[in-house]
Amino acid sequence: MRVTRNSMPSSVTDLDLRPAARVSPASQPRPPLDHVSVSPVDIEARAVAKRFGETAIFQDVSFRLARGEAVALVGANGAGKSTLLRCAMGLIPVSAGEVHLLGQPASAARGRALRSLRARIGLVSQSHNLVPRLSALSNVVHGMLGKSPGPRHWSHMIAPQAVREAALEALDRVGMADFAGRRADRLSGGQSQRVAIARAIVGAPEVLFADEPCASLDPQAGEDVMELFFRLVRNEGTTVVFTSHNIDHALRYGDRVLGLSGGRMELDATAASLTARDLRGLYD
Ligand SMILES: Nc1ncnc2c1ncn2[C@@H]1O[C@H](COP(=O)(O)OP(=O)(O)OP(=O)(O)O)[C@@H](O)[C@H]1O
């Protein structure tokens, strides 16, 4: 099954960026369509392939994501979603093809160019990856590393006042200001993921990657985290790529859905044009 309703636009202005049919409160404050339709491309993958040793994970993967788009990347366990995200962020090299992120060749960026590119993106991963013995606030302060010439080992005690204030404000936006001084290893899974979101958004990233942001949470905490995450990023017009095994989340929070299966990008369509059955086909 290769579903390509609205797949691979021939130009940015061809992108069909209708909001998803199922409008949630989080997805309401969308930028005007005419604004989006002339937006630049924030991520472009051209014929990307990835192998680990002799094992091919995916090949010939191409897509373009416009600024402000929210894209769900779906596929069965082991389909290569996390690997594709890591390639798109320039964290691991591609085996063939190229990825452009914010106009820069992410797949070839090294040294200072790579660091400055990473300073413009944010990541929320499935295991929140907070530093356990540091406070929630210090963990969020760490989200500002790379955006300032300050020491790389800042704690909230020695970070500049402006950085501490930004971190506290980010915690406030995720409803965690009251927990600023609590050690990360004394937070619940849902609280930790909120702190991880605060850390990802504190530097106002232009592109946010979220790798199964609610995978470790119970259903209600997962709903709350997704709702919060998308309320924050929609308001900022941030470009978002998130992976999920939750078909409802993919259709509800994605403007567009990309699906990996059998080492190929088998699905590239607007969420509004898809049904849950279309997505289930990727798991057969
Ligand atoms: N560093 C690595 N070295 C070798 N193989 C790897 C490496 N990272 C991932 N893989 C393999 O690549 C394949 C794709 O993994 P990946 O984590 O990208 O899949 P996924 O779609 O995100 O899966 P899941 O839904 O289970 O998180 C898997 O078979 C995995 O074992």
Description:
This protein has 284 residues and is of the alpha/beta class. The protein has a domain of 185 residues: Rossmann fold, CATH 3.40.50. Helices cover 30% and strands 23% of the residues. Strands 6-7-8-3-9-10 form a six-stranded mixed sheet, with helices on both faces. Strands 2-1-4-5 form a four-stranded antiparallel sheet, with helices on one face. Helix 5 packs across helix 6 and helix 6 packs parallel to helix 7. The N and C termini lie close together (10 Å). About 11% of the residues have low confidence. Bound molecules: adenosine-5'-triphosphate. The site of adenosine-5'-triphosphate has 10 residues, from helix 2. This is Phosphate-import ATP-binding protein PhnC. Its EC number is 3.6.3.27. Keywords: ATP-binding, Hydrolase, Nucleotide-binding. It is an enzyme of class 3 (hydrolase).
Main sheet: which strands, in order across? Answer: 6-7-8-3-9-10
Average pLDDT, rounded to a whole number, is 82
CATH architecture of one domain: 3-Layer(aba) Sandwich
The end-to-end span amounts to: 10 Å
Keywords: ATP-binding, Hydrolase, Nucleotide-binding
Protein name: Phosphate-import ATP-binding protein PhnC
EC number: 3.6.3.27
Organism: Tritonibacter horizontis
